[in-house]
Amino acid sequence: MRFKTGLIAVCGVFLVGVSAPAGTASSTNQVVKGRFSEFSAGIDRDFDIWGPVRLTIGEDWTSVRANAKGLEPSTTYTSHLHESACSDADGGGHYKNDPAGPPAPPNELWLMFHANSAGSAHDSSSAPWVVRDGARSVVIHDTDGARIACADLFVE
Ligand SMILES: [Cu+2]
């Protein structure tokens, strides 16, 4: 695989036309894992948010799947793929496939967490583009938009 990775880096343009047979694409997907933890600042409620986040990059798509626990019961939260690490301006702005494009899906990747009576939620979402390399994060927003939790993801 090391040889193949190097080949792709050097000859990526040529390999685009050499698509893998159907059914084998999943073996080439890149998976990046992270975990939610809450922001210490700007939280005036007793959250204790945690949960795993998985970002998967396919041949021409990116998906995010996440579980979040410690949310307020029966409450809906918005969440997005952000462009920076959690420690960098609390995740920075929303990640946009086309930086000049609209601030909404499919140009952005959004999640929606509908917390159950125990404060747990899960969601998954995908977009028809491959995320660029760099520090990324998934941020959960409170109902007033405040950033309450974040998971770091580093796409190589
Ligand atoms: Cu956001």
SSE topology sketch:
Elements lengths: L1 H14 L14 E9 L12 E7 L4 E7 L7 E7 L27 E5 L6 E7 L6 E8 L5 E9 L1
Antiparallel strand pairs: 1-2, 1-8, 2-3, 3-6, 4-5, 4-7, 7-8
Bound molecules: copper (II) ion (CU).
How does this structure look, described?
The protein has 156 residues and is mainly beta. It has one domain (5-155): Immunoglobulin-like (Sandwich), CATH 2.60.40. The chain is 9% helix and 38% strand. It is built from one helix and eight strands; from the N terminus they run αββββββββ. The chain has an eight-stranded antiparallel sheet with strand order 5-4-7-8-1-2-3-6, with no helix packed on it. The radius of gyration is 17 Å and the shape is globular. Residues 1-24 have low confidence and may be disordered. The chain binds copper (II) ion.
Average pLDDT works out at 85
Give the domain tally: 1
Specify the CATH homologous superfamily: Superoxide dismutase, copper/zinc binding domain
Please count the helical segments: 1
Name of the top-level CATH class? Mainly Beta
- The CATH topology assignment is Immunoglobulin-like
- Count of extended strands: 8
Q: How does CATH name the architecture? A: Sandwich
Largest sheet: 8 strands, antiparallel
Give the ligands present: copper (II) ion
Shape: globular
Round the Cα radius of gyration to an integer and report it: 17 Å
Q: Roughly what fraction of the amino acids lie in strands? A: 35-45%
Terminal CA distance reads 16 Å
Strand order of the largest sheet: 5-4-7-8-1-2-3-6
In terms of quaternary structure, what is this? Answer: single chain
Succession of helices and strands = HEEEEEEEE
Structural class: mainly beta
Parts with pLDDT < 50 across at least 5 consecutive residues: 1-24
